């Protein structure tokens, strides 16, 4: 009894460690937060050191969906479709306060938080969040990826 | 969503008459060209683009309706997010439109500061545009170098405004705070780095065979077409028309600062790239000359005389020990740096109906407190007389216009932003029909579509 | 050309189709009747002295809640024009009634008017007679109503997917 769970939990940890350092993100960039996303991804605040340096521009090949920037109601079905196209295991990061709660765009055009449409794992507030906040959010995501039983 | 195909594209039959059909390809709205969200629905005959339909509006955030909801200064954060790569130009354009409506004239120093910060913003915009455009052609190094240069400029912006991107620095009647001490040295350093990056990019890309093959002769628009489509800015100058609002209808301090207009010849993507590179150098020249000629001189770093902490200052006022209180220097919090009395008077118009008093006056004198209240209370505030005004600034993409209608109350009745990147995106079908699919990418990159501005 | 000279020239050519002119804070405006709009715009573009070759912007204003103008025509379509050769500007305004919000199109004169008028239709519901492809530009087709009208509440959401809040 104990031996079986010991091996699977060690395997879980190993797979979690591997998954958290090989993040293939799909940057769903819409608005101003995209500029801070670019800044975080480039040399100054390099996100490649966390293993997240290779964005995959197809949802079929990505495992983390970075929703960066305001989502309007016109864009919402597209976001849902992209999310549906990703394979498990997948995670979603709400980057910027417009994706967390709609930001200060409380009007007819803006979705008040993408968690009304898709499940979100990490929220990074800020308008736009500084790259340090983004990296903090990314590290929290890595902790989330690493912990728990891994599906494989 | 209506299918564009039903609307206007006929189920195309190829002109070769062998029974083959045109292929309908949808690019976007979520696509890797990191410019924003636009949908290009193309009908292709092999690799050649026969017809396209461009669909925008995926980032419509109701800017104009939101501006009507609050007092005049409330719209400043919304204007930041219009052209979010050069937010300072939007801030100042909007503020200038309201100042035109009010009929106030900003101080000279404020004009120079607006020029300096606008030019820094313009350089950031061009860096992002050329960098992202080159990345899509495969020159990833150029992108990294230009974002590196942009970081140096963002540090400058952060020194002055407190934020990197969405700065909310402009105010009606002036700017939020004066330039910090030692700013001109920091600008020199940042510009030296930027000039080095531009030189490196020139070596990498300008004579590069692959780059030139993909950009020369692609996406060209004739001079007449460019004007008929209402296109202004670098795209119009690349077509050979020397129209730059900073020269033809100078505003702020542009009439006192000499610079050159970069002109192209063919109006193709390569000329647009060269125009943007040249404009960055010109912008640096403008900013340096403006810093040299800044009225009011460099900031005094420290002053003689004891400065007292603000709570002691307020206590003295409350106790009635007000003799000489209005002249006493105070140590302000770092957030309020550049907003002390001397600085405030240098950069804000001396008009009580428009500009908030300094914190020292608000807390130190009853007149200041009343002034502050009259500008902040609901129903009061900045109340331009009923009328309308249009102010156009030279944004990074062209003529950025703000049309403001006032009804005499403290809320704008109508604010309209004329986006400089709407005409080029409207003319995009004209630019790419007849070209190949791969030519859409550099053309779209050189148009520099910014979603926040396009969709407002 | 001086702003008042521009307005004078418009007045001499348009006669009584030019309803009013005024100048405020340096901007020169001509209010034109709907019947004379195409003539006015063609004149602005083709006349050598005026030569307004750049259609800068087409937009509209809803005067429903404007104090003092509740009885007049509800909308005004506003055209901003610029001449690259001469360097002068003018603004043309066309009053439009609420019951008959139709204005002739300018797409025959400037191709950019296509998208600018689509935006006015989308945001205000003003039709453009003769427009080749009048559909929404910024909102999605399923959206009902015209958001920038004063009687459209700012947070009436019509989501395509997701909760109705």
Structure description:
The complex is a heterotrimer of chains A (152), B (456) and C (165). With 152 residues, chain A is of the alpha/beta class. Chain A is built from 5 helices and 4 strands. Chain A has a single domain (25-146), classed as Rossmann fold (3-Layer(aba) Sandwich). In chain A, 38% of the residues lie in helices and 12% in strands. In chain A, β2 (64-68), α3 and β3 (91-95) form a beta-alpha-beta unit. The longest helix of chain A has 19 residues, at 2-20. Chain B has 456 residues and is mostly helical. Chain B has 20 helices and 8 strands. In chain B, a hairpin with a 2-residue loop joins β2 (39-45) and β3. In chain B, 56% of the residues are buried. With 165 residues, chain C is an alpha/beta fold. Chain C has a single domain (3-129), classed as Beta Polymerase, domain 2, CATH 3.30.460. Chain C has helices at 3-14, 37-46, 113-124, and strands spanning 18-24, 27-32, 54-62, 75-82, 89-96, 102-104, 127-129. In chain C, β6 (102-104), α3 (113-124) and β7 form a beta-alpha-beta unit. The longest helix of chain C has 12 residues, at 3-14. Chains in contact: A-B, A-C, B-C. The interface between B and C is large, with 48 and 43 residues.
Order of helices and strands of chain B: HEEEHHHHHEEHHHHHHHHHHEEEHHHH
Count the domains of chain C.
1
The total count of strands of chain C amounts to 7
Q: Which pair has the most extensive contact?
A: B-C, 48 and 43 residues
Taken from the alpha-carbon principal axes, the silhouette of chain C is globular
Strand order across the biggest sheet of chain C? 1-2-5-4-3
Number of helices of chain C: 3
Can you say what the CATH homologous superfamily of chain C is?
Answer: NADH:ubiquinone oxidoreductase Nqo5 subunit
CATH fold name of the domain at 104-297 in chain B: Cytochrome-c3 Hydrogenase, chain B
Classify the beta-strand content of chain C into a percent band: 25-35%
Low-pLDDT residue spans of chain B: 300-304
CATH superfamily of the domain at 104-297 in chain B: Cytochrome-c3 Hydrogenase, chain B
CATH class division of the domain at 104-297 in chain B: Mainly Alpha
Euclidean distance between termini CA atoms of chain B: 20 Å
> Termini separation of chain C (Å)?
54 Å
Determine Rg of chain C (CA atoms, Å).
Answer: 17 Å
Based on the coordinates given, report the CATH architecture of the domain at 104-297 in chain B: Orthogonal Bundle
Task: Assign the structural class of chain C, choosing from mainly alpha, mainly beta, alpha/beta, alpha+beta, or little secondary structure.
Answer: alpha/beta
> What about the largest sheet of chain C?
5 strands, mixed
């Amino acid at each position: 009894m104990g031996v079986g769970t010991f091996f699977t939990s060690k395997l879980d940890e190993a797979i979690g460690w591997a998954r958290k350092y090989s993040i293939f993100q799909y940057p769903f960039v819409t608005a101003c937060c995209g500029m801070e996303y670019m800044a975080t991804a480039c040399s100054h605040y390099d996100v490649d050191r966390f293993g997240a340096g290779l964005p995959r521009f197809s949802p079929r090949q990505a495992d983390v969906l970075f929703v960066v920037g305001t989502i309007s109601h016109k864009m919402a079905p597209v976001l849902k479709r992209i999310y549906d196209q990703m394979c498990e295991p997948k995670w979603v990061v709400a980057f910027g306060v417009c994706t967390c709660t709609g930001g200060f765009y409380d009007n007819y055009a803006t979705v008040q938080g993408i968690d009304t449409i898709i499940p979100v794992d990490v929220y990074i507030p800020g308008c736009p969040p500084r790259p340090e906040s983004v990296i903090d959010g990314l590290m929290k995501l890595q902790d989330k990826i690493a912990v728990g039983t891994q599906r494989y | 969503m209506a299918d564009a195909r039903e609307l206007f594209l006929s189920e195309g039959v190829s002109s070769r008459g062998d029974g083959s059909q045109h292929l309908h390809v949808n690019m976007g709205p979520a696509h890797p060209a990191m410019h924003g969200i636009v949908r290009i629905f193309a009908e292709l005959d092999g690799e050649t683009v026969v017809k396209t339909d461009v669909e925008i509006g995926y980032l419509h955030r109701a800017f104009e309706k939101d501006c009507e909801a609050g007092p005049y200064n409330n719209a400043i954060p919304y204007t930041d997010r219009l052209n979010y790569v050069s937010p300072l130009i939007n801030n100042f354009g909007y503020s200038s439109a309201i100042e035109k409506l009010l009929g106030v004239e900003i101080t000279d120093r404020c004009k120079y500061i607006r020029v300096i910060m606008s030019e820094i913003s313009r350089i950031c915009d061009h860096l992002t545009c050329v960098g992202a455009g080159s990345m899509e052609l495969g020159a990833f190094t150029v992108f990294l170098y230009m974002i590196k240069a942009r970081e140096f400029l963002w540090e400058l912006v952060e020194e002055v405004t407190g934020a990197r991107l969405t700065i909310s620095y402009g105010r009606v009647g002036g700017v939020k705070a004066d330039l910090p001490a030692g700013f001109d040295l920091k600008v020199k350093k940042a510009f030296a780095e930027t000039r080095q990056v531009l030189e490196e990019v020139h070596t990498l890309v300008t004579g590069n065979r692959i780059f030139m093959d993909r950009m020369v002769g692609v996406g060209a628009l004739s001079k007449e077409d460019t004007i008929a489509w209402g296109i202004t800015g670098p795209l119009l100058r690349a077509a050979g028309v020397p129209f730059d609002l900073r020269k033809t209808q100078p505003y702020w301090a542009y009439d006192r600062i000499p610079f050159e207009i970069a002109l192209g010849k063919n109006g193709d993507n390569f000329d647009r790239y060269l125009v943007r590179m040249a404009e960055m150098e010109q912008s640096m020249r403008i900013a340096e000359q403006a810093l040299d000629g800044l009225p009011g001189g460099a900031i005094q770093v420290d002053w003689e005389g004891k400065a007292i902490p603000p709570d002691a200052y307020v206590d003295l006022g409350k106790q009635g020990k007000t003799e000489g209180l209005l002249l006493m220097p105070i140590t302000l919090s770092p957030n309020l740096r550049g907003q002390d009395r001397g600085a405030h008077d240098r950069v804000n118009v001396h008009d009580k109906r428009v500009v908030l008093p300094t914190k020292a006056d608000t807390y130190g004198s009853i007149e200041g407190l009343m002034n502050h209240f009259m500008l902040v209370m609901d129903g009061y505030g900045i109340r331009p007389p009923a009328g309308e005004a249009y102010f156009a600034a030279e944004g990074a993409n062209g003529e950025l216009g703000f049309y403001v209608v006032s009804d005499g109350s403290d809320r704008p009745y109508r604010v309209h932003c004329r986006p400089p990147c709407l005409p080029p995106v409207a003319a995009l079908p004209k630019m790419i029909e007849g070209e190949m699919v791969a030519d859409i990418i550099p053309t779209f990159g050189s148009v520099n579509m910014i979603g926040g501005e396009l969709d407002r | 050309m001086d702003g008042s000279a521009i307005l004078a020239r418009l007045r001499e050519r348009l006669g009584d189709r030019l309803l009013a002119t005024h100048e405020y804070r340096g901007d020169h405006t001509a209010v034109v009747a709907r019947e004379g709009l195409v003539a006015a715009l063609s004149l602005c573009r083709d006349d050598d002295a005026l030569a307004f070759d750049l259609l800068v912007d087409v937009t509209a204003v809803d005067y429903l809640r404007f104090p003092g103008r509740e009885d007049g025509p509800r909308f005004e379509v506003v055209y901003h024009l610029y001449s690259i050769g001469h360097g002068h500007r003018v603004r043309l305004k066309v009053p439009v009634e609420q019951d008959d919000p139709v204005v002739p199109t300018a797409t025959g004169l400037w191709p950019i008017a296509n998208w600018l008028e689509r935006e006015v239709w989308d945001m205000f519901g003003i039709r453009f007679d003769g427009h080749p492809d009048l559909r929404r530009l910024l909102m999605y087709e399923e959206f009902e109503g015209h958001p920038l009208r004063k009687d459209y509440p700012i947070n009436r959401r019509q989501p395509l997917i997701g909760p109705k809040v």
